[in-house]
Amino acid sequence: MMTSRRTLNPMSGRTRGRGERGMSLVEALIAMALLLLVAIGILPLFTRAMVNNAAGSEATAVANHARHRLEEFGQLPFNNLALTVEDGNERLTADVYYSGDFNALGDETWAQEGSGSGAQLRDRVSRVRQFRLVDPPGAIDDDLDGVIDGLGGLTDDPADGEFDDPLGETLDITTVHLKEISVELVNPRDDPANPGGGGPLGAAPPYRVRTFRAF
To answer: Per-domain residue ranges for the chain?
Structure first.
């Protein structure tokens, strides 16, 4: 009959079995190293989540500011001064989102470019262009049935997302059939000359929304 070997611990005055043996220093260091490797693998996930949350918050704020401006223009009468092209073939309105104090929430305000003070958080440019849709040879009746088959005035030959032939200034508002209103918003740090951007999130492309108003 075999019996397990038991040793006497002179410090405790009792015997200790093999199952009660403590962890050695080498084993503790190995365990700590494994935990460190796991932590190093998880840490980038938390960092990426923080960056994504910040980018999502910025994108939401930018979209809200652009759409709010577009809604303001959409509520104006068709021949309102803000929607009237007076020089060239487009009307541009630039304003800037200023913050007087980075540490104060709610201190931000929109003001015309050059008229505000403080840090510039966002730049916004609103553009109005106008078009004539039915004006021979813009009105096309291929089968000569008295019904217009195609409308001229909205051509995009290079397929760059921009109509090619906007109207210039006109005193006869009845000759304007359609107005294009677009709002483009960008963070000043996202300078095209600096693709890396000036912030931790890097450079973001301009955010643009567009709508059309019919006469």
So the answer is: 46-132+167-214
H runs (alpha helix) in the chain = 25-74
- Whole-angstrom distance, CA of residue 83 vs CA of residue 181: 8
CB count within 10 Å of CB 54 equals 13
Tens of pLDDT, residue by residue over 76-93, are 999 899 999 988 899 999
SS3 breakdown of the chain: % helix, strand, coil, rounded to 5? 25, 25, 45
Q: In angstroms, rounded to a whole number, what is the distance separating the alpha carbons of residues 102 and 119?
A: 8
**Residues ≥6 apart with Cβ < 8 Å to 194:** 203
**78 near 215, Cβ under 8 Å?**
yes
What is the value of pTM for the model shown? 0.67
Query: Measuring CA to CA, which residue among 115, 67, 74, 208 is closest to residue 82?
Result: 74
CA neighbor of 69 nearest in space, from 98, 88, 96: 96
